Amino acid sequence: MAQIIDLLVIDDNKDFCNSLKNTAYQVGTDRNWEVYVTDFQNLEEGFAELAKEIKYKGVILDGKCVIKKGTSDDFDFLPVALDRLAEINRITGRIHTPFVINTGFYTEIKTFMTTQIELRKGKIFDKSIEEEKMLNFLFDAVSVSPETKIEMEHEHIFDIFNKNYLNSSLRQTLHNLINAQIKNAEEQ
């Protein structure tokens, strides 16, 4: 059975998002994964979804995008997005959400944001030439993330969420219970 991997993309270029969905599905197939991409064209709506849905295993961020619907794209997008991603991880109890920056402003972002991105275990990719490389980096990070490992080890249990038999809000509760059990076992 193929592992289901949901990704969240925040990019104001809808055509790019549609193209990325196809590429992600193809690259995922090589790993025996069913990859589904949900895209948003602004940070506010995208991260509202990420905060309520634990199903997302990874995030792809544009380098310059819209923060709030109805505004224009902004270079402040990335610092705001990284801070909000850390806050969502803290609030939801996620250990780490793998992420990448996929941007047409590669040189500018790399010059000013590399340290901040790498400290948070992300990486910057040039949107025009590195799509498959970016996806493979993200998929590698997703495959070793604690949340993915738990879901792969307990695939038969988490399948109830993938089939929409249970409310997805319970998914995080189940993760927390399994993480607590793992920590208890390690301490003994």
Descriptive report:
The protein is of the alpha/beta class. It contains eight helices and five strands. The chain has helices spanning 14-29, 43-52, 77-92, 106-119, 131-144, 146-153, 155-162, 169-187, and strands at residues 3-10, 33-40, 56-61, 99-103, 124-126. A five-stranded parallel beta sheet has the order 2-1-3-4-5, sandwiched between helices. Strand 4 (99-103), helix 4 (106-119) and strand 5 form a beta-alpha-beta unit. Helix 1 (14-29) crosses helix 5, helix 2 (43-52) packs parallel to helix 3 (77-92) and helix 6 packs across helix 7 (155-162). The chain starts with a strand and ends with a helix. The mean pLDDT is 90.
